[in-house]
TrEMBL record:
GO biological process: chromosome condensation
A Pfam family recorded for this sequence: Bac_DNA_binding
GO MF annotations, alphabetized: DNA binding; structural constituent of chromatin
Name of the protein: HU family DNA-binding protein
Database matches in InterPro entries: Hist_DNA-bd (IPR000119), Histone-like_DNA-bd_CS (IPR020816), IHF-like_DNA-bd_dom_sf (IPR010992)
Keyword Phosphoprotein attached: no
Origin organism lineage: Bacteria, Pseudomonadati, Pseudomonadota, Betaproteobacteria, Nitrosomonadales
Cellular component terms per the entry's GO annotation: cytosol
UniProt keyword list: DNA condensation, DNA-binding
Matches recorded under PROSITE patterns: HISTONE_LIKE (PS00045)
Provenance organism: Sulfurirhabdus autotrophica
Similarity annotation: Belongs to the bacterial histone-like protein family.
CDD domains (alphabetical): HU (cd13831)
Length: 96
């Protein structure tokens, strides 16, 4: 699902709100999460999950074309940990 499909799905569940307004909210959400992560903060949505950052150490890799060793620098990377509510929703079995 891409951003426009997400906006369409939300608009189907909330018909009183325009797609433009939903797009603005989705954009504001992603920007707010990004800003918090840039500051080193985490964002927790109880029942859904938590966005946080982690450190990736510098390491040596290989160029797949040449096989030459390359140095991959250390980096701060975003991470998402799903909450129990999301895990339960994804693993919910359908009754026949």
């Amino acid at each position: 699902m891409n951003k426009s499909e997400l906006i369409d799905a939300i608009a189907a569940k909330v018909p009183d709100v325009s797609k433009r307004a939903i797009g603005d909210v989705v954009g504001a959400f992603t920007e707010s999460v990004s800003d918090a992560l840039k500051k080193g903060d985490s964002v927790t949505l109880v029942g859904f999950g938590a966005f946080k950052t982690g450190k990736r150490e510098a390491r040596t890799g290989r160029n797949p074309r040449t096989g030459a060793e390359i140095k991959i620098p250390a980096a701060v990377v975003p991470k998402f940990s799903p909450g129990q509510g999301l895990k339960d929703a994804v693993n919910k079995t359908k009754k026949k």
